[in-house]
Specification:
The complex is a heterodimer of chains A (about 210) and B (about 260). Helices cover about 85% and strands about 0% of the residues of chain A. Chain A is mainly α and about 210 residues long. In chain B, α2 crosses α3 and α5 runs parallel beside α6. The longest helix of chain B is centred in the C-terminal third of the chain and has 29 residues. In chain B, about 55% of the residues are buried. The chains are: A mainly alpha (about 210), B alpha/beta (about 260).
Chain lengths: ~210, ~260
């Protein structure tokens, strides 16, 4: 009973405090909610430790299994240890820490981000392939919207701007708002179920 | 006497109370014996097919709820994972669930463990099934991309909240030849999923997971409540449009209060 009751009480109190903090100008509620947010950061940090333990266990086992790809796990563990040591002993502004973040992590981040361009092209190619009526409509609409964003195309055919704006501001926005309103309502319904303990997925129970 | 409400949030507060009452009233009515029928959602139906495919091919199913810490979208995604993990346990299919945040990892682990326990096969649960990858968005994405290709996942399920990594994951899944099922309420990521995945669960459908899979009365009641609230919203849109057309700002001024 305690295993279920305590998390339930915590979720009810935290949920209601957070909601009332947004609407009510009551110092006691606002201060409590602010403290709760700070606690949330602390709890998340401890959970990060839990994740790191999982990472070490899985890749530690793989490193010792001595398979063809074990070296990948060794690289990961060495990288993890090097970053942790650098952060602890050299500090956040230390030369080695700055090198790890600016010289390695940021460079890899940028590389992966730039891969998005290639992915967008290949996904668009597949989406625009004419194989049924819907795909044909999508192709026509997509080409029209794309053309109307190219200065040369607009200079050659200024009439493209009108239909492009109508597609983006009327059709597109209407569809998006439909999804946003329906999702927003579903958000409220799920929040209520969680706060009242009717949905306990987060506890790993039903 | 000063109002305890923040200025500009009075209308939102009243709306929240009304909508909450409608939803709670619907839950109460359905619990008292009302019935609710749900339409078929192709993405959810495909989860069974996905497990069958994994069993036939002998390759694992990959699941991720996205890059974020626990949010409502992530929780809805985890409800799908609970169902998927239950099926995987039942049919002895491989499963790898990846997470990017510590708290999401802790909750995901609990959900998968519980699903295996509920399926009557707790001994089949392995800690390697739930993996924490990285707190960094692109490091997480590259970790998932590695798992999809190196472990030859034959099914890629992405249900939850995603950022720009969504397309990287979906394109890698496509390149790996995986059956892809995705779901999110993030407007910016939906087009990517629609373009790259076999099945897409859109917006509110994601939040209907519990009602769809478990059919419990509270969730079904909430779905009915949501429909009523949507009808009220639609009515407000029509009234607002008419008022604006005839030059009245009454509703707009009311909403600003």
């Amino acid at each position: 009973l305690t295993r279920r009751l305590i998390p339930l009480v915590i979720s009810i109190v935290v949920g209601l405090l957070t909601i009332f903090d947004y609407f009510l100008k009551v110092p006691a509620i606002n201060d409590s909610a602010s403290a709760l947010r700070a606690w949330g950061v602390i709890v998340s940090t401890f959970a990060l430790g839990l994740g790191t333990v999982n990472l070490i266990i899985i890749h530690g086992r793989r490193s010792m299994a001595r398979t063809k790809k074990s070296w990948l796990s060794v690289v990961l563990l060495v990288g993890l240890a090097a970053t942790a040591f650098s952060g602890i002993f050299a500090g956040a502004q230390g030369k080695s820490t700055v090198f790890i973040f600016d010289g390695i992590i940021q460079a890899v981040d940028q590389t992966l981000y730039s891969m998005l361009g290639v992915c967008i092209c290949s996904a668009a190619y597949r989406a625009f392939r004419v194989h049924n009526v819907e795909a044909s409509i999508m192709l026509v609409v997509g080409v029209l919207v794309l053309l109307a964003q190219i200065p040369t195309a607009i200079a050659l055919a200024p009439g493209l701007i009108g239909p492009q704006r109508w597609i983006m501001n009327t059709l597109n926005v209407a569809g998006q708002r439909g999804i946003v309103i329906a999702s927003g309502v579903a958000f409220i319904a799920l929040s209520l179920r969680v706060i009242l303990g009717l949905d306990r997925t987060y506890m790993g129970t039903d | 006497l000063a109002s305890p409400l923040f200025p500009g949030r009075v209308f939102a507060f009243v709306t929240f109370l009304v909508l909450s009452l409608v939803i709670l009233g619907s839950i109460y009515r359905v619990r008292k014996g009302g019935s609710v029928s749900l339409r078929r959602i192709a993405g959810y139906e495909a989860l069974k097919e996905a497990v069958g495919r994994a069993v036939e091919m002998g390759n694992p199913i990959h699941f991720t709820a996205g890059y974020y810490a626990v949010t409502l979208e992530i929780m809805a995604g985890l409800r799908c994972l609970s169902h998927l993990a239950g099926l995987a346990a039942q049919y002895d299919a491989g499963l790898v669930a990846t997470t990017a945040k510590g708290d999401t990892y802790a909750v995901t682990e609990g959900v998968v463990q519980q699903a295996f326990f509920k399926a009557g096969r707790p001994e089949y649960y392995k800690p390697e099934m739930v993996r924490y990858l990285s707190d960094n968005e692109y490091a997480f994405a590259s970790g998932v991309m590695g798992i999809l290709t190196r472990e030859k996942a034959c099914v890629n399920v992405m249900m939850g909240q995603f950022a720009s990594e969504s397309l990287l994951l979906a394109e890698t899944g496509y390149a790996a030849g995986a059956l892809q099922i995705a779901g999110t309420a993030s407007i910016a990521q939906l087009p990517f999923f629609v373009a790259t995945c076999d099945y897409v669960v859109i917006g509110e459908e994601l939040f209907a997971a519990e009602a769809y899979f478990e059919g419990n009365l509270a969730s079904l009641g909430a779905i009915r409540g949501q429909d009523l609230v949507k009808a009220i919203s639609l009515g407000m849109i029509v009234i607002g449009s008419l008022l604006q057309t005839f030059g009245s700002n009454i509703l707009l001024d009311l909403m600003k209060k």
